[in-house]
Amino acid sequence: MMYFRYYSVTICFYKMSFKKILIFNSLLFFVFGLKAQTGGEEVYLFLNLSTSARQVALGGEVLTLIDDVNQPIWNPATINESLNGKLSVNYTNFLADINIGSVSYASKLFKKLGTFHGSIKYRDNGSFIGANESGIETGNFNAKDIAISVGYSVKIPKTHIHFGSNVKIINTNVDTFSSVGIAADFGLLYNNPESALVLTFVARNIGTQISTFNGLREDLPFNLALGGSYELQHVPLKWYFTINNIQRWDISAPNPSDQVTNLNGDVSQPEISFINNALRHFTIGGELFSKRAINLRLGYNFRRAAELKRQNLRTSSGISLGFGIKFRKMKFNYAFSNYHSASNSSTFSLLINLGDKVDNDIKDN
User: Fold this and answer.
1) How many domains does the chain have?
2) CA distances from 164 to 119, 129, 183 (A)
3) 149 forms bridges with which residues in the sheet?
4) Which of 2, 265, 341, 352 makes the best surface tag, with the fewest CB within 10 Å?
5) Looking at residue 106, which CATH number applies to its domain?
6) pLDDT at 97
7) Nearest of 211, 240, 342 to residue 301 by alpha carbon
């Protein structure tokens, strides 16, 4: 059994220059697990799959794309006025006939409150062959996931720090079984327009199951992450980095390709070193010509590369790449990710500016 505390947070900001009080009663909750019973793997893992082609091309876990309406799904602190009226539709032809997609939209619903962000994310796992305990087939069944989120962000007065939060409802269906959950994301973003460095700290997937599949409560894929980006001054190149799973040091998983068999037929797994485990927390990426009509992107996910490599065979697991093409009020992004020598995926994103303004460089609000 798992017990939780819920807190409602009311945040008030006062700006002397405008003599107004902006009250943001977020009705968000912090969820702290006090005591838990081991119940298997985490649930709703699709929440950690990126659906944005730009993010996927940069390694899949970038957190500081402040000019992309898809980014608030991962980091709500990036919600800002420049996203107002922007819509994005994303689709990924994932592994084993799995389809992943999302729709994101940002709108300035109330003039005094600022911009809100909404998204729908889904995963269609396709059709499976069902069987009973005796192995007799009982017909096909489907498995699907969906998450609906709403987010908001505010700038802390007299600073370059933004605070944002998402609330999301999650539903997963496997055959006749289903589960519903609720979760929240929180982010802090430092964005000084006079600095080439952007930094952020994000807590994702803080929540619980409202209803379970079979009465057994499972943990959500909680993640603490630190991210940043740096734009070079004399070269049209922007670097990105993310440090994931800060809350848990050992995230290593043995790769069967690393198994060693001795002359007696005994199989052993080499120990994963300190450096190897540390690197698995990192994702890096680079974007060339980030502010021009055509962008080129390259990313590397250390954890994916380590867990999906093959013995005595050089592969490009962990590498992702892509490009973007900008039009006056539309953007098209594509990403290619190599997960294994036998499988890869393609992600497509179409971003449309439904507002009156043409895209400009992002500035701190």
Assistant:
1) 1
2) 15, 42, 14
3) 119, 168
4) 265
5) 2.40.160.40
6) 80
7) 240
